[in-house]
UniProtKB/TrEMBL annotation:
GO terms for cellular component: early endosome; endosome membrane; Golgi apparatus; plasma membrane; synaptic vesicle. The lineage of its organism: Eukaryota, Metazoa, Chordata, Craniata, Vertebrata. Pfam families: CBS, Voltage_CLC. The keyword Glycoprotein does not apply. Belongs to the chloride channel (TC 2.A.49) family. This is Chloride channel protein. It comes from the Eukaryota.
Length: 731
């Protein structure tokens, strides 16, 4: 009786664990979260707040603030992501032009802004104004001639190398996680994996700065993918300010899903495309509430970008187009051909790029990231400068390829031979024979296409921020524009053929080459990323071409079918596998006909399962078990003889609880008994204080019987986001 009284007296001490102690419920780096547990913890928190809110006005206000915090976080993410995107756009514009020349009236103006302010610009020479000087004019006061060309060429390469070197050095020294596109890692993080520091403040800062540098250096990469990473860093930063999100990894991932939508919204000026992209491509768990919040975040981000107006055309996007002619049924054939091209290019790109990245990982090449970036930048700049289509920034190139040839266009692509006695309204120009400028443009585009295809394979995956959307679209747009011009000339010279006879009369404007470029861009982007719905929505939001949804859909679906025939995974899934991240893809089929008993560990003939017993192990036994194994948790059973399951204890929480007990609780020594039951076990007199650890025991671990098919088990892991699953036979 005395002993029992003793036990009750020290009961208060032993139950100290009923107050939570710091760090319980958090996860180690490179571990997976337990979605079920996070969800139940959030429900408990919500219940507490609701019951408290009836007690006083102050608690009621606190509950309102808690309910609103989600929308506040979305508002902040949208504002910051929109602002950063606007600043990046303006800086890229200025630094890209800096490689070719400088504005004398104000050096912070880009070429276009410099000539806006000039009074001496004529319409024909709108790119030439006295305020804007190329480097050769400034340094040796010559604008034409061999010496001027060589000087400009040399300075172009020097600026490119300087930008690239600065970018790769910043990434290496301050934020190694800022390299790459970031979408594969964000997919992995959203599926419940933890990569600490991947969405940190340093990563945000360095990625924003280096993104401007690498895009300006003229490398074959875009800023669209990394903007998703930047927006997710903003999301992570703001969610750490609210305890509702900072303490719950599951809730934090809902915020990150919405942030990804805001990222695409500002990258392409496509708010709805962003929401669909987050849903289709990156998110793992996407409840309805997240859909509304993503919608709101994307709206705020697009609104912020629009008020900054980085392109000066009151649009959210660079490639706004307006076509005047409808498309005809016969054109679906070339559109589908472009879809096939997109699928083949996607497959080729993924295979070559993964092979090169694997080589980088396994050979000595990976030890010299700075040298690799410098070499690729030098090769890109040397080959790109002579060709006017590769010299300019990729976004400008795509913008020109999408453009329809109006009466006022000065581009080489619009050098058609005009009919002198043509009296028609200005915007409806009939099909005309191609002039010498178009033929020059065609072979320059063909060379640019080959160059882009090859160089992008080596550029994507280097140790600098690099997006894939813009280079893929450029490849497709070049191929599409060439096909479009071909079809247009065919229709002009062969308008009596049966396919043209019904819809293409002589003197009518029937084929729009810019539309083919748009369809080709969509097909190539779809072939690489395997997006379908979000891709079509992004494309028509990007270009404003609502009439052309059917051609875009046809191309997107064809490119996905063709690419899927050669391999199911898109570029992001391929990079996830290459990096060895744990990712259970929802789209994967599970084909094996095995049972849980064939897959579970330990197998027959291996050492028995490491378990804890409910009331017969000492603190020392538990510490030894933790030291000798590296499992993330241990099943708690009745005893070694009857292995009936009681619950599951996480390794990290066991370590923290024992460490805490030794510090804060008298009488806990190495041979104290650890018990997980409600009541203390019967102990002989004079034995040390036992340690009660019921609070860290998960009493409802997920279990399946040994005859459950593996197909079902994989589905359970996917749909519930489990961390582990215990296999039982009759308990």
């Amino acid at each position: 009786m005395v002993n029992a009284g003793d036990m009750n007296g020290s009961g208060n001490l032993m139950d100290f664990l009923d107050e939570p102690f710091p760090d319980v419920g958090t996860y180690e780096d490179f571990h997976t979260i337990d979605w079920l547990r996070e969800k139940s913890r959030d429900t408990d928190r919500h219940r507490k707040i609701t019951s408290k809110s009836k007690e006083s006005i102050w608690e009621f206000i606190k509950s309102l603030l808690d309910a609103w915090s989600g929308w506040v976080v979305m508002l902040l993410i949208g504002l910051l992501a929109g602002t950063l995107a606007g600043v990046i756009d303006l800086a890229v514009d200025w630094m890209t032009d800096l490689k070719e020349g400088v504005c004398l009236s104000a050096f912070w103006y880009s070429h276009e802004q410099c000539c806006w302010t000039s009074n001496e610009t004529t319409f024909d020479d709108r790119d030439k104004c006295p305020q804007w000087q190329k480097w050769s004019e400034l340094l040796v006061s010559q604008s034409e001639g061999a010496s001027a060309y060589i000087l400009n060429y040399f300075l172009y390469i020097m600026w490119a190398l300087c930008f690239a070197f600065l970018a790769v050095s910043l990434v290496r020294v301050f934020a190694p996680y800022a390299c790459g596109s970031g979408i594969p890692e964000i997919k992995t993080i959203l599926s419940g994996f933890i990569i600490r520091g991947y969405l940190g403040k340093w990563t945000l800062l360095i990625k924003t700065v280096t993104l401007v540098l690498v895009v300006s250096s003229g490398l074959s990469l875009g800023k669209e993918g990394p903007l998703v990473h930047v927006a997710c860093c903003c999301g992570n930063f703001f969610s750490s300010l609210f305890s509702k999100y900072s303490k719950n990894e599951g809730k934090r991932r809902e915020v990150l899903s919405a942030a990804a939508a805001a990222g695409v919204s500002v990258a392409f000026g496509a708010p709805i495309g962003g929401v669909l992209f987050s849903l289709e491509e990156v998110s793992y768990y996407f409840p309805l509430k997240t859909l509304w919040r993503s919608f709101f975040a994307a709206l705020v981000a697009a609104f912020t970008l629009r008020s900054i107006n980085p392109f000066g055309n009151s649009r959210l996007v660079l490639f706004y187009v307006e076509y005047h002619t409808p498309w005809y049924m016969a054109e679906l054939f070339p559109f589908i051909l472009l879809g096939v091209f997109g699928g083949l290019w996607g497959t080729l790109f993924i295979r070559c790029n993964i092979a090169w990245c694997r080589r980088r990982k396994t050979t000595r090449l990976g030890k010299y990231p700075v040298l690799e970036v410098i070499a690729i930048t030098a090769i890109t700049a040397i080959i790109a400068y002579p060709n006017p289509y590769t010299r300019r920034s990729t976004s400008e190139l795509i913008s020109e390829l999408f453009n329809d040839c109006g009466a006022l266009e000065s581009s080489q692509l619009c050098d058609y031979i005009n009919d002198p006695n043509m009296t028609r309204p200005v915007d409806d120009i009939p099909d005309r024979p191609a002039g010498p400028g178009v033929y020059t443009a065609m072979w320059q585009l063909a060379l640019a296409l080959v160059f882009k295809i090859v160089i992008t394979i080596f550029t994507f995956g280097m140790k600098i921020p690099s997006g894939l959307f813009i280079p893929s679209m450029a490849v497709g747009a070049m191929a599409g524009r060439m096909v479009g011009i071909g079809v247009e000339q065919l229709a002009y010279h062969r308008h009596d053929w049966i396919i043209f006879r019904n819809w293409c009369r002589p003197g009518a404007d029937c084929v729009t080459p810019g539309l083919y470029a748009m369809v080709g861009a969509a097909a190539c982007l779809g072939g690489v990323t395997r997006m379908t719905v979000s891709l079509v929505v992004i494309m028509f939001e990007l270009t404003g071409g609502l009439e052309y949804i059917v051609p875009l859909m046809a191309a997107a679906v064809t490119s996905k079918w063709v690419a899927d025939a050669f391999g199911k995974e898109g570029i992001y899934e391929a990079h996830i596998h290459l990096n060895g991240y744990p990712f259970l893809d929802v789209k994967d089929e599970f084909t094996h006909r095995t049972l849980a008993t064939d897959v579970m560990r330990p197998r027959r003939g291996e050492a028995p399962l490491s378990v804890l017993t409910q009331d017969s192990m000492t603190v020392e036994d538990v510490e030894t078990l933790i030291k000798e194994t590296d499992y993330n948790g241990f099943p708690v059973v009745v005893s070694k003889d009857s292995e009936r399951l009681i619950g599951f204890a996480q390794r990290r929480e066991l370590i923290l609880a024992i460490k805490n007990a030794r510090q804060r609780q008298d009488g806990v020594v190495s041979n104290s008994i650890v018990y997980f039951t409600e009541d203390s076990p019967e102990l002989p007199p004079n034995s040390p204080h036992p340690l009660k650890l019921r609070r860290i025991l998960n009493l409802s671990p997920f279990t399946v019987t040994d005859h459950t098919p593996m197909e079902t088990v994989v589905d359970i892991f996917r749909k519930l986001g489990l961390r582990q699953c215990l296999v039982t036979r009759s308990g």
